[in-house]
């Protein structure tokens, strides 16, 4: 619940970038009075003025997110941060995320979640590019709770990488999963594009007949999401007489779909670079 006067924050100063915000977030009132909020790109501490931010930068020892680096391939890393072990960082992360997420309610109760932070590394440190959160509860059917790529990094395939990473974890857990609903418009567009691309790969790679259960085991996707992706690819046809479904494999179309994506040359997740055991 939002309380107090409406937030005036119009933009954040983050790692030297000024980024316009999209939504209000419940920062404490004394931080919501200014148009610009200063956020340390490494520890995510929020500050009121460029003077405080400058002083903080001199003494902040962080050059990467807290937690364990569980993936590194070239300049891309993933850090797993436990909401119980690093509550302040995770609360700050949730507040930051709220500035770009329309419907997000969690800010302070971070303990039941793990946070997977994707960074891009250069000589100054591991720069925060995006993240997703995930419930620790083993019975949860959601493999992603919230997902965000900072606007300055959007439309470069990072959302795709985060989603791909979330399914990689799900496969290691020998489970299937789906993002928490409702999805935002951008979330839906990104997931749809991802699901369809994965299905194109799997439909092309197959020699033997496939079943949805089979695809589900190989991808970590739920049967519902597989059906919706197949429909999106116009690969699921219902026989009007027998009322059964059949797969229509338009290999040329699948190939074109993959080639269109590959031509963008987006960075990819390399599953071999994951060093991780599931949370217990
Ligand atoms: N308009 C049209 N298509 C889009 C858009 C858009 N604004 N955004 C993504 N897509 C589609 C495109 O097909 C795109 O591929 P392309 O750029 O090659 O055309 C594809 O989705 C994936 O693009 P990525 O570059 O991999 O994704 P990005 O890094 O931009 O991140 C994300 C996607 C995470 C959804 C980002 O837009 C974001 O953080 N949005 C704000 C927060 C948000 O809405 N999060 C999802 C909430 S739902 C949930 O949390 C479970
Ligand atoms: Zn800091």
Describe the structure.
By secondary structure, the protein is α+β, with helices and mostly antiparallel strands. It contains seven helices and 13 strands. The chain has helices at 50-59, 87-98, 158-172, 185-205, 212-219, 223-232, 251-262; strands spanning 11-14, 17-20, 36-39, 46-47, 68-73, 76-82, 113-122, 125-135, 142-144, 147-149, 178-179, 236-238, 245-247. The strands form four sheets. It has a five-stranded antiparallel sheet, sandwiched between helices. A hairpin with a 6-residue loop joins strand 3 and strand 4 (46-47). The longest helix has 21 residues, at 185-205. It is elongated and about 70 Å long. The protein starts with 10 loop residues before the first strand and ends in an 18-residue tail after the last helix. It binds acetyl coenzyme *A and zinc ion. The site of acetyl coenzyme *A (ACO) has 24 residues, from strand 10, helix 3 and helix 4. Zinc ion (ZN) is lined by residues 40, 42-43, 45, 56, 60, 62.
Bound molecules: acetyl coenzyme *A, zinc ion
Average pLDDT rating: 93
CATH class of the domain at 185-258: Mainly Alpha
Kindly provide the radius of gyration, computed on alpha-carbon positions and rounded to a whole number of angstroms.
21 Å
Query: Looking at CATH, which topology of the domain at 185-258 would you report?
Result: Arc Repressor Mutant, subunit A
**Which stretches are poorly predicted, pLDDT < 50 over at least 5 residues?**
none
Cα shape: elongated
Strand order, biggest sheet?
Answer: 5-6-7-8-10
